[in-house]
């Protein structure tokens, strides 16, 4: 049976570079893995008042179920103001509740930060890792994946240059090794 990988992209915009990078990475998984995008843009802002058995939004439940069904979670995110975009933090919060039933618990994760700038989303990458520690997600340490100057490596069809494919493959290979340990 193929193992699902939930791919969570921190950007909501249609032309997102992060999403384009994610698409390139998804193609590099072995055939027994099934990476699929999990939508975060439809999640109402997390509010404990509505997160009750009577009122829980259908979007929260669907999102939590998708994460729970996955063997692991691949995060591909831009950096907003040296941290992660609010929509991604909201998704993390939604997935972490109800208390004691976190969808993220023990899911092996990998983080790829993406930026048109030279600092490569380092701040977002590590801000995200801070939450993943608390959420008990064993997270790929090496190779680290900071994709900077992203507009230089994507062609007009959204494909990465040959040299970058090898780098992305090394991330996927190490992540699959991590997944196999759990
Ligand atoms: C940005 N951007 C940005 N870039 C970066 O490298 N470090 C940062 O701290 C920020 N801060 C930031 C804040 C906000 C509110 C926006 C909208 C943008 C620029 C960002 O990297 C750029 O817009 C990317 O194209 C966003 O990623 P996607 O949507 O292409 O995946």
From TrEMBL:
Q: Coiled-coil regions in this chain?
A: none
Q: Which InterPro entries match?
A: Flavoprotein-like_sf, FMN_Rdtase-like_dom, NAD(P)H-dep_reductase
Q: Name one GO molecular function term.
A: oxidoreductase activity
The UniProt record lists the NADPH-dependent FMN reductase-like domain at 4-150
Q: Name one Pfam family in it.
A: FMN_red
> GO cellular component terms?
cytosol
Name assigned to this protein: NAD(P)H-dependent oxidoreductase
Organism, by scientific name, is Companilactobacillus farciminis
């Amino acid at each position: 049976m193929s193992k699902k990988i939930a791919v969570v992209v921190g950007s909501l915009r249609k032309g997102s570079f992060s999403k384009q990078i994610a698409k390139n990475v998804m193609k590099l998984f072995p055939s027994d893995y099934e990476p699929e995008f999990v939508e975060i843009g439809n999640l109402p802002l997390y509010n404990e008042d509505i997160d009750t058995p009577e009122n829980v939004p259908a979007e929260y439940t669907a999102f939590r179920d998708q994460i729970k069904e996955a063997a692991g979670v691949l995060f591909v995110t831009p950096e907003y103001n040296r941290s992660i975009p609010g929509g991604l933090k909201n998704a993390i919060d939604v997935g972490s509740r109800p208390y004691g039933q976190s969808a993220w618990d023990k899911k092996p994760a990998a983080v790829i930060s993406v930026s048109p700038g030279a600092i490569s989303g380092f701040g977002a990458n590590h801000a995200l890792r801070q939450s993943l520690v608390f959420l008990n997600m064993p997270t790929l340490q090496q190779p680290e994946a900071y994709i900077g100057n992203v507009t230089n490596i994507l062609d007009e069809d959204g494909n990465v240059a040959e040299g970058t494919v090898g780098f992305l493959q090394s991330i996927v290979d190490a992540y699959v090794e991590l997944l196999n340990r759990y």
